[in-house]
Here is the input.
Amino acid sequence: MGKIVRTISRDGMVMCCAVDSTDAVARMEQIHKTSAVVTAAEGRLLTAASIMGTMLKSANEAFKPDLIYICTSTVNLQFRSDPALTKEQAKEIFAAQYSRFETLWQKLERFHCPIIQNNFEQPPYALMGSMDSWDYRGLGYFVNRMNLKLAEYAQSHEGFYLLDLARTAAEYGLNEWHDRSYWYMYKYMCARLAVPNIGYKLALIVKSIYGKNRKMLALDLDNTLWGGVVGDDGVEGIAIGQETGTAQAYYEFQQYVGDLKKLGVVLTVCSKNEEENAIAGLEHPEGALKPADFAVIKANWEPKDRNLLETVQGIGLLPSAIVFADDNPAEREKVRRGVPEAAVPELDEVYRYIGEISGAGYFEPVSISADDLKRSEMYRQNAQRAQLQAQTEDYGEYLASLQMHAEIAPFKPMYIQRITQLTNKSNQFNLTTRRYTQSEMEQLAQSPECVTLYGKLADKFGDNGVVSVIVGEKQGSDLNIALWLMSCRVLKRDMELAMLDELVKNAANAGISRLIGRYIPSAKNKMVKDLYPETLGFSPVSADENGVTVWELKLDNYVNKNKYIEVN
Here is the structure.
C-alpha cells in the first residue's frame, strides 16, 4: 500500500489482483513464532503464493470481482483531428472505436457484477480551435459523440455505470488536468494531483451501488434556508427571493434542496426556534420550500443532536442517514460529537452551500426508481404512524388501526430494479447479507430451482412500495433461504410474518417439506439474530464459532402467523 507502480500495456488493458494477507501472515507468525525480519520475508512469499494460487485456478474461479472499473482516457482514442478526413472515414473510425468498448462490456457481463467506465475528457488542445468541437474532423467532436454513445449504452444496460470524467476534468481545469509531463514520463492520463479527484468520484459511485448513500438532509433555518433571524427580524425582514443578491442565493439554495427531495432525499427541519416562527418563515411567499416539503419539523430549544436522533427514530432511519446543514459552527460541532455517524458539511457563505453539499456526493444516485421518488412522502407517513402509535396503548390495537394490506408474489420484471436496489441497501433486517446484481435477480426470477417473493405493504397513511425480498433455493425437499431482507421503514409491523406465510404456501406448492434458514452475522444485522427461533418459530440445526446459525421449519401442520395484514 502507498506505492505507485508504473506499468505499460500493449493494448490498454490491465488486470490487477490484490490480496489482503494481513490475517494470514499474522497467523503464520503466531504458529511459527517468527521474528519480525522472518515474518516480513515469509509474509511476502505467502502473499505471492496466495496471488499465484488464485490466478492458477480455473477462469471461473480465479476472477470473481465485486465490481469492475474500466479506466480510460482521451489519450486512448485512436483518432486525431484531420482536415483531410471524409465524413465516411470519420464514421468508420468512430464505429470501430466504439465497437472496441462495446465488445469489452459484453464480454465482462459474464462476471455478473457492476461495471463502471469513465467517459472521455476534452483533449489537451484543439487543432481547429472552436471548430474542433463541432466539425466531424475534430477530436473534440469525436469525444462529444463518444460520450453521448456511452451515455446511451448506460441508459439501456442495467449494472453499467459511467464516471463523468469529462466533468471531473473540467472542475479541475483542462490546462492543469493535461500536465503532459506526467504523460510523457509516467503515462499518467492527467496531472498527479488530479488522481485523488478521480478516486473520490469513483468512490461515490461505488458507495451508491452498495446502498451507502445518505437519505436525510436535516436543515437549520435562520441564516441557512434564509438570511436573518425570523424570530427577531419577522417574516418580512428575512432575506429570501429575488430582491437582492443575498436573497437570491438563499432562494436558489432552497431550490436545490427542493430538487434533492425530488431525488428521494428526505427533508427535515432541526432549528432552535419557536415552531410558529419556523412555520411562518417556511410560508414566506418568496421561498421555494414550504412546510409540506418536510417530513418532520423540529423547531424548539432542545439540543440539536437530540432532535436529530428523535427524528430518525421516529421515521425509521439510522443516524448514518443524516446530513446536517447549519451555518453555525458551534452547532455543527455539537452534532458531530452527539451524532458521530452524521455527515456535517462545513457551511460558511451562502453562495457556497450548494457546492459544499453537491460536491460531497452524499446523495449521488446510480439509479432512480419509482420508490425513490416517493421516499420523502413515505417517511412523512412514517412520522404520522409514529404519532398514532404514541397515542395507542395496545400495540396490537395500533397494528389493527393501520388497516394494512400487502401484495406478496414471485418476482415480476417491473419490480426487479427496486428488488435489486433493496438487496444492496438493506443491512439491519438482512439475514444472510448476500448481494445480487440486477442480471442475477433476473436469472433467479426465471429459475425453476428457486422460489422468489417480493412484498409490498400499504396502509391508511400510504403505500411503502416494495419492502421485503425472499430468495429460496430448492435442494430436494428442502428450500434453503439464500436471502431474506426487509426495509427498515416497515419494521415492527409484522410484515415478516406475512412473508413467511406466503413463503410456506409457495414452498408447499413446489413440493417442499422443510425450510432451512441461515443467520450470518454482520456489524449491522444483530436485530435479526434471533428472528428465526423467537419470531418465526424455526428450530435449531447447527451453529459455528463465527456466529453462523442454521434453523429449520417443517411445513407439515404449519399454522399461519400473520394477524393484521390483509394479503393480496
In short: The mean pLDDT is 90. The first strand starts at residue 68 and ends at 70.
